[in-house]
Amino acid sequence: MNGEANILVIDDEESMRDSCRRALSKGRNKVVAAEDGLKGLSMFEKESFDLVILDLKMPGLSGMEVLQKMKEREPEIVVVVITGYATVESAVEAMKLGAYDFIPKPFTPESLRMIVHRALEKRRLSLENILLRAELKDRFGEKVVVGTSRSMQKVEELVRQVGPTDSTVLISGETGTGKELIARAIHTQSSRRDKPFVVVDCGGLVENLFESELFGHVKGSFTGATETKYGRFEVANGGTVFLDEIGNISIGIQAKLLRVLQEKEIARVGSSQVIKLDVRIIAATNKDLLACVKEQTFREDLFYRLSVVPIVLPALRDRREDIAVLANHFLEKYNKKREKGVKAISEEAMQILKEYDWPGNVRELENVIERAVVLTKGGVIEAGDLWYYELSRETAAGSEDDEVKSLDDVEREHIEKTFRKLDGRIGEASDALGIDRKTLRLKLKKYGID
Predict the structure, then answer these.
(1) Are 236 and 328 in the same domain?
(2) What is the chain's Cα-based Rg?
(3) How many CB atoms lie within 10 A of CB 330?
(4) Considering 314, 343, 378, which residue would you say is the last residue of a domain?
(5) Structural domain tally of the chain?
(6) Is residue 62 part of a domain?
């Protein structure tokens, strides 16, 4: 078995409890034992376990009853059932109740370790499925290009230095500067690279559900809690939690987050069960958190806990020498993704890109290049391809309106027209525009589109 696991053994025979403890305590595993079902359930309710080894035949509360109660409380818990009265019927019944596997007494330490190894691997995969790990791997696989400017070279050097450490990092910068990209780069430079990278959008979560999203909840803990839910911190255990837009969380949640950083443990909403944490925290903000501290909207102690290593990302308009590098990178990316044959960006089009102020930063540049790759009819992106389709169509039809509009004006008109046409349906509008919902909401706010 690799790594560290918290294992609970429930068996009424002292010799069996000791045998399991000796067989499984190798490495960094923590093994605790209970001599009956009631004590085992009590321990299970107070502490989080990765695996339970459970005897079926015990006086008082039977193993079957214990298994059923554990599964009701935590459906994803992995339980290996052991018994000296092995029958096909008992094995089938235990599996129907949710046991991972069945092992009869007597068994060797090697066979126990083998089945426990498989069971822990099953738990790991279950949590990764919750996280949609496949999608994250796709994103990790993308070639990362941040630019060649001196300011971004310094950022890259910081990433290389801080990545292998476990230090908490605070990334600051305007919306669209690539804060999540840098956070992922730090994660992939660390020893946690094969563990989960979990994103928490602090600006997109509803305040009264924020605690549940972060820490999870147990079934019945509040109205609407119809099942036990794993929080983002628990899913990320062993990996990295990226707290995006950290400046948007309330003072109350800030206090709870500070306790997590200090104590390295959480409890699900509605539960007193303590879950030990081993996660790295990377936070990001587009706000001046020091100013927020002075305004007493952000806790000073939390600020210093988060900003052990601060990284500041410059706006794209402040590093214009990177625009061409990034534009060509996005051209290559969307050529492959959209299966197009666009070979280059014309000098005139590139000059327009370099002169624009990019209020949406790198994200806006990427959207413009993707749109141009899709809409251009030739092998080269020309100046006209940088505008939106509606304007291009009017120009092609010989419109008499020769007014030159800024990219901001054209973008506002196009977003507003699309948004109205789709009756304000955010999901459909973001798909039609080729941008994510978060970006669309920011642009709607920016242009005052209600």
Answers:
(1) no
(2) 27
(3) 22
(4) 314
(5) 3
(6) yes
Question: Which of the 8 DSSP states describes residue 128?
Answer: H
Measured CA to CA, the distance from residue 424 to residue 433 in angstroms comes to 13
- In angstroms, the CA 275 to CA 142 distance is 34
Tens of pLDDT along the chain (450 residues) come to 445 789 999 999 999 999 999 899 876 788 999 999 999 999 998 888 989 999 988 888 989 999 999 988 888 789 999 877 656 677 778 888 889 888 888 889 999 999 998 888 878 767 665 554 434 344 444 445 567 888 988 898 899 899 999 999 999 999 889 999 899 989 988 999 888 999 998 877 777 788 888 888 888 788 777 777 888 998 898 999 999 999 999 898 899 899 999 999 888 888 888 888 899 999 999 999 999 999 999 999 999 999 999 999 999 999 999 999 999 999 998 988 888 889 899 998 899 899 888 888 998 899 889 989 988 888 999 888 886 433 333 334 444 444 555 667 777 887 888 877 777 888 777 767 767 777 888 888 888 887
Q: Give the pair of three-digit tokens for residue 418.
A: 């699309």
- Which tokens belong to 68? 């059923």
User: What is the rounded distance in angstroms from the CA atom of residue 386 to the CA atom of residue 95?
Assistant: 60
Q: CA dihedral defined by 322, 328, 334, 337, rounded to 10 degrees?
A: -110
Residues 87 and 219 in one domain: no
Task: Judge if 110 and 155 occupy the same domain.
Answer: no
Among the three residues 126, 151, 185, which one is the final residue of a domain in this structure? 126
Domain co-membership, 268 together with 178: yes
**pTM (predicted TM-score):** 0.63
| Structural contact between residues 269 and 221, judged by C-beta atoms closer than 8 angstroms | yes
Domain span at residue 398 reads: 317-447
Q: Say whether both 206 and 288 belong to one domain.
A: yes
Same domain? 341 vs 414 = yes
Is residue 1 domain-resident? no
Q: Residue 145 belongs to a domain with what CATH number? A: 3.40.50.300
Q: CB 401: neighbour CB atoms within 10 A? A: 8
DSSP state, residue 4 = -
Strand segments, DSSP code E, in 352-441 are: 380-381
